Amino acid sequence: MTRRDDIATNLAAVRERIREAEQQAGREPGSVALIPVSKFHPAQDIAILAQLGVPLVGENREQEARSKAQWLAANNCSIGIAMIGQVQSKKANAVARWAHEVHSVDSVKLATHLDRGVALALERGDRATGDVRCLVQLSADGDTKRGGAPLEQVDEVVEAVEAAHNLIFGGFMVVPPLDSEPQRVFASARNLTDAHATALGRPLVLSAGMSGDFEQAIAAGSDIVRVGTGVLGKRSVG
Question: pTM, whole model, 2 decimals?
Answer without folding.
Answer: 0.96
